Amino acid sequence: MALKSWLASANDPVSDFPIQNLPYGAFRYREQTHIGIAIGDRILDLFACTANGLLAQLPEEIEYACRMETLNALMELGPEAWQRLRAHVTDLLDAEYTKDETRKKVEVTLVPMQAAEMQMPARIGDYTDFYASIDHATRVGKLFRPDNPLLPNYKYVPIGYHGRASSIVLSETAVRRPCGQTKAGDSAPVFGPAKSLDYELEVGMFVGPGNRLGESISINEAERHIFGLCLVNDWSARDMQSWEYQPLGPFLAKSFATTISPWIVPLEALAPYRVPVRKRAEGDPAPLEYLQSTKHDRDGIDLTVEAYLETRAIREAGIKPERISRGNLRDLYWSLAQMLTHHTSNGCNLRAGDLLATGTISGPDEGSEGCLLEMKHRSGAVQLATGEQRTFLEDGDRVILRAHAQRPGLPRIGFGECAGLVIEAAPLTR
Ligand code: MN
Predict the structure, then answer these.
(1) From the CA of 199, how far away is ligand 1's center (Å)?
(2) Is 343 designated active site?
(3) b/e string for 235-256 if b means 16 or more Cβ within 10 A?
(4) pLDDT for 390 beyond 60
(5) Residue 123: is its pLDDT beyond 60?
(6) What is the rounded CA–CA span in Å between residue 402 and residue 406?
(7) From the candidates 34, 136, 225, 404, which is the catalytic residue?
(8) Which of 119, 138, 162 corresponds to the end of one domain?
(9) What is the mean pLDDT of residues 413-428?
(10) Distance CA 365, CA 233 (A)
(11) CATH number, domain at 109?
(12) Are residues 269 and 175 in the same domain?
């Protein structure tokens, strides 16, 4: 018998937030910002839980962390504390084990999700973006180097770049089309609104306890440092990128905005969906020893990731956003643990609340491309049911990323949405 909650909306089979999920977020309600846990169509207000004495049996540092306005303090406590809090909250919401008296106390701490305004879940000190999909790297590489799409380091190094934390925004924040330098063919470079605006469908991991400068995190310890996962849209101006990226990699083509979803799904909720990491092709080198986990049969996660597009015409017609791609996190060449371990392998310190993103998640098949740039090899543009076409994003387009893990007999673990509306560039001034 699968676990059920006494809260009916949590047992709806299409809900992203059953009792087995319990993702963390921060929200504003009645002029106050608290952290909470999504359950069905409600948010369990953790501050209110501490005020009602519902967390009094837990160690003081957990109660303290639950009174904060961001998740950083809780992130810092580590996996044993996260498990204790999660087990305790599961009991509070469990249909079988909750006493009527406790249930009444819990009920008053539940906030209707619709009435709350989601906030940034953590103060993000640093943001790093990887490039962990070999299918993405190969398709994009082909556009630039048809004969030699994959660079020789790819199968040895989890490639990444340091992104910008200051411009990370929460889902539903409008994204202004950036201005920048672009250069077409043999003409001189020009400055103006980017023409080739793209999204990148990614998963982000929030770092829990960090490591000291000069020390590293071993591959088998890596997941103890991951608080949970969210969706990330790494908006990219491709025309700016292709002109600026050599020799140091992405810069202004990416730093104008990065959108994250508000709910952070604990790795524990995804435990039933762990799968072996993608098998390396015959002839590929084995990862170097510091990147070889002894539990590689569970290093991957079977998580479906999808991108939807809502153009202005779709919105005005009142029809549903159209799905333009569907991929899976299990298709990545590098695991989450490998990315985190590689990041610290030189002694670089990670800190609680840092965000590491996977890079565009694409699969081998048509329809699994995680950004518009990769779809160019299709018929040249994405054809929408409205008759519209897209090579890149237009002003008024809204991109919605979604993710879920689901299998017969298992609860659906959803991520909610990571959405952003593209608005026109700011007028040029000098
Ligand atoms: Mn990216």
Answers:
(1) 9
(2) no
(3) bbbbbbbbbbeeeebbebbbbb
(4) yes
(5) yes
(6) 13
(7) 136
(8) 119
(9) 96
(10) 21
(11) 2.30.30.230
(12) yes
CA of 138 to the centre of ligand 1 (A): 14
Domain count, the chain: 2
Which residue range(s) make up the domain with 115?
A: 8-119
Tens-digit pLDDT profile for residues 184-212: 999 999 999 999 999 999 999 999 999 99
What's the pLDDT band for 144 if we cut at 50, 70, 90?
confident
Both structure tokens of 362: 């694409």
Residues 78 and 136 in one domain: no
**131 and 113 in a common domain:** no
Token couple for 285: 């080198």
Q: Give residue 221 CA to ligand 1 midpoint distance, Å.
A: 25
> Does the residue 2 lie in any domain?
no
Tell me the pTM. 0.97
354 plus 226 within the same structural domain: yes
What percent of the chain clears pLDDT 70, i.e. is strictly above it? Answer: 99
Which H or E run contains 160?
strand 160-162
Q: Are residues 255 and 274 in the same domain?
A: yes
Sorting pLDDT into bands at 50, 70 and 90, what band is 96? Answer: confident
User: What CA–CA distances, in Å, run from 94 to 10, 20, 45?
Assistant: 10, 10, 16
The enclosing domain of 345 has a CATH number of 3.90.850.10
Q: How many residues does the chain have?
A: 430
Going from the Cα of 370 to the center of ligand 1, the distance in angstroms, rounded, reads 10
Indicate the pLDDT class of residue 384, thresholds 50, 70 and 90.
very high
Last residue of a domain, one of 64, 96, 119: 119
> What's the gap in Å between 254 CA and the centre of ligand 1?
8
The token pair that represents 287 in the structure block:
């990862």
Residue 247, preceding peptide bond in cis (omega within 30° of 0): yes
Which tokens is 297 given?
Answer: 């049969």
- Partners of 423 in the beta sheet? 176
